[in-house]
From TrEMBL:
EC number: 3.4.14.-
Family indicated by similarity: Belongs to the peptidase S46 family.
Signal peptide stretch: 1-21
Enzyme class: hydrolase
Role this protein plays: Catalyzes the removal of dipeptides from the N-terminus of oligopeptides.
Name this polypeptide is given: Dipeptidyl-peptidase
Taxonomic lineage: Bacteria, Pseudomonadati, Pseudomonadota, Gammaproteobacteria, Chromatiales
Gene Ontology MF term list: dipeptidyl-peptidase activity; serine-type aminopeptidase activity
Keywords assigned by UniProt, alphabetized: Aminopeptidase, Hydrolase, Protease, Serine protease, Signal
Length: 678
């Protein structure tokens, strides 16, 4: 595939003259062009400049975005972004709202990181000069990892900041991003009514925001970070107003093919849901309520049930959506465009064919790996394999980062065995998923595993059970001290061991290493094929006058939308605002009549991925009008597509934030610290 578009990618992404507010996860360098389109008209050059400068008042909190709202380091973001760190506090945060009256009463959140984006440098040309010399996709991937380490290391030495290399458009462009990590973050305010608990619902009545304060070290002292900041809008937004959302969306599959979508939702997810159900049923039967086992496996059951609920929701939404049909229609338009020119056929058709062939291999691998993943719920055999793999990695000592990652995984696995383990139930899980594995087509199975459990001629339950009983009886890994002792053993000591599970791990190690290599090689080839396909898609978009945006990858993005309701079903129209009137109808104390119509949450067409992260929401005057924190159920498939009619994001309204803070003296003091804009 010729690289005729690599040098033009940035121009193509910026070259659109017309944009409707909604779909698009725009990079900072695209923002000016996007704001100048008719989605945001009428905007003056001064307004556009003000919005561009607003980035200096943004911070990254965990995987979320936050906005400084005072010169003294006060940050506004979604409660979800700090929820895990808050839950780790000891003693636990008292129930209900919390507001720090003074700096001394602010609560340090050691598990929450705050960073400022200092610079983004385009290093595409620098990398491509060396990557294009490599002979095959895997060599290029390995070279990219090597160059990435070098660039990041040099960047951190020269700048004194933490650096990351980000790939966009499947490697068509690369940016080196510098982050300044702030020294400390403290909890200042948690409101009541943080969440109504009805995920993906509308109307919603949630105070899903939190106020934090960022600190930096000055000598031996910590002092509030002196920051540029944004005013909080007391006027809020009205229906059809334009909004801009600043966030760090983590993952996306917007450029998946129709075949990828069908495989995901018609084969892989249904199979996963069936395995979840089987695992849950087996645990509930062998760990009935009221037993010690029930306590041990309560958290696992909760996680299984949550995963099942999420997957059911996705499958139902897929069934109700036109996602597959839309993907197929777009692909047919692409094919027709390619076939309309002999030159395009020669340039672009091979990319489509190569990607299709590689996806067939990848989907076959995913079906097998799904079963192997569920086999990991039998934690003792999985631990034995991890222990031996860790010993081999330590012996080779080639990749310190990989060794550290394995050590962390082992630590988590050890903890789970200490708290959530019963040998009989563990063995039954192994037996069940070995049976599921044996149902795979012969070409997807592993000769070493087939041989070890005599599965080559089919699954014989008694033979496999007898083998498992012997393995579990012949191991001492059920003892916590023995497990810890194996952490320091050499591969030769594993090979000489008489422990049955250690023997199993040694027997399966070469197969596991081969699988890892196969996955690595196929991933490299897929990355290369997707990059070639991305060039085709960008050329197609350019021909249609459509702007291109990169897949979500955890980097800073902007979404541009409008405050707007939607029609979820026939004869039903959702208004874009929920109000205190609806909130008081659910039980809290009544509010004065003059406040009953105050907006609590609002809907917008701003784009996001399905895993919503906290994102400050601005109006065209660069004022904070809310915080995006969730979506509606029709947007569950947001990772795969944006539906202009149904995709909606949910925001806490700035007027509700102000109203809540005014209910207490401490909250009013915080408002006095901020700048309110009417």
């Amino acid at each position: 595939m010729t690289k005729i578009y690599r040098g033009l990618a940035a121009l193509m992404m910026l070259g659109c003259s017309v944009l409707q507010a909604g779909e698009g996860l725009w990079q900072p360098q695209q923002l000016q062009q996007m704001l100048a389109t008719d989605a945001m008209t009428p905007l003056t050059p001064r307004q556009i400049s003000t919005l561009q400068q607003a980035v200096t008042a943004m911070a990254k909190v965990g995987d979320c975005s936050a906005a400084f709202v005072s010169a003294n380091g006060l940050l506004l973001t979604s409660y979800h972004c700090a929820e895990q760190a808050i839950s780790q506090l000891q003693p636990a945060l008292p129930a209900g709202s919390f507001t720090a009256l003074t700096a001394d009463t602010e609560i340090t959140l050691p598990d929450l990181a705050v960073a400022l984006t200092r610079q983004q440098q385009d290093v595409t040309a620098l990398l491509n000069r060396q990557l294009n010399l490599e002979l095959n996709p895997q060599q290029r991937n390995e070279k990219l990892q090597q160059l990435s380490r070098q660039l990041v290391g040099e960047c951190q030495r020269q700048s004194g900041y933490r650096c990351e290399l980000k790939s966009f458009h499947q490697g068509m462009s690369y940016y080196l991003v510098q982050y300044q990590d702030l020294d400390s973050v403290r909890l200042v305010h948690v409101p009541s009514l943080v969440d109504d608990g009805r995920n993906w619902s509308w109307p919603r009545y949630s105070a899903n925001y939190v106020l934090l304060r960022a600190y930096v070290r000055a000598g031996n002292q910590l002092q509030p970070y002196r920051s540029a900041f944004l005013p909080l809008s007391a006027r809020g937004v009205a229906e059809n107003d334009a909004v801009i959302v600043s966030g760090f969306p983590q993952n996306g599959q917007r450029y998946d093919t129709a075949e990828q979508v069908r495989f995901q939702f018609e084969q892989l997810l249904p199979a996963s849901l069936a395995y979840l159900s089987q695992t849950t049923e087996l645990i509930e039967r062998l760990a009935p309520a009221g037993t010690n086992n029930a306590q041990r496996y309560a958290l696992m059951l909760q996680q299984l049930q949550h995963s099942a609920l999420q997957q059911q929701r996705m499958l139902q939404q897929y069934a109700d959506s036109s996602l597959a049909a839309q993907k197929q229609q777009t692909e047919q338009q692409l094919i027709d465009w390619i076939n309309g020119s002999p030159v395009r056929q020669q340039l672009y058709a091979p990319a489509l064919n190569r990607l299709a062939l590689l996806l067939q291999q990848y989907h076959s691998m995913q079906q097998r790996d799904l079963v192997l993943d569920y086999l990991q719920y039998a934690r003792l055999p999985a631990l034995a394999m991890q222990l031996y793999s860790y010993a081999v990695a330590r012996e080779d000592a080639q990749d310190d980062a990989a060794i550290q990652q394995q050590a962390e995984q082992l630590d988590r696995h050890m903890h789970l065995l200490d708290t959530q383990f019963d040998p009989r139930l563990d063995m039954e899980l192994a037996l069940h998923f070995l049976r599921q594995y044996a149902l795979l087509p012969a070409e997807q199975r592993l000769p070493a595993l087939d041989h070890y459990f005599a599965l080559a001629d089919g699954f014989n339950r008694e033979i496999v059970r007898h083998k498992l009983v012997a393995i579990y009886r012949g191991t001492s890994l059920t003892d916590a001290d023995t497990r810890l002792n194996w952490l320091n053993q050499r591969p030769s000591q594993f090979a000489q061991s008489q422990d049955s599970l250690i023997n199993f791990a040694v027997a399966m190690h070469d197969t596991a290493a081969q699988l890892a290599q196969q996955r690595k090689q196929l991933a490299a080839e897929l990355d290369d094929a997707k990059a070639a396909m991305m060039e085709v898609l960008l050329a197609f978009d350019e021909a249609r006058g459509k702007p291109g945006y990169a897949e979500a990858n955890g980097s800073l993005r902007y979404s541009i939308g409008r405050v707007r309701g939607y029609q979820p079903t026939d004869a039903v129209w959702y208004q874009p605002f929920s109000s205190l009137r609806g909130l008081t109808a659910q039980g809290p104390a009544a509010v004065a009549a003059q406040h009953a119509g105050l907006a609590v949450n609002f809907l917008s067409t701003a784009d996001s991925c399905a895993a919503y992260t906290g994102a400050p929401t601005l109006n065209a005057r660069a004022e904070l009008v809310g915080v995006m924190f969730a979506g509606v159920k029709e947007n569950v498939l947001a990772d795969w597509h944006y539906d202009a009619a149904q995709s909606r994001s949910v925001h806490v309204d700035s007027r509700f934030i102000i109203w809540q803070l005014r209910q207490s003296e401490a909250g009013t003091a915080l408002l006095n610290e901020m700048q309110l804009r009417n």
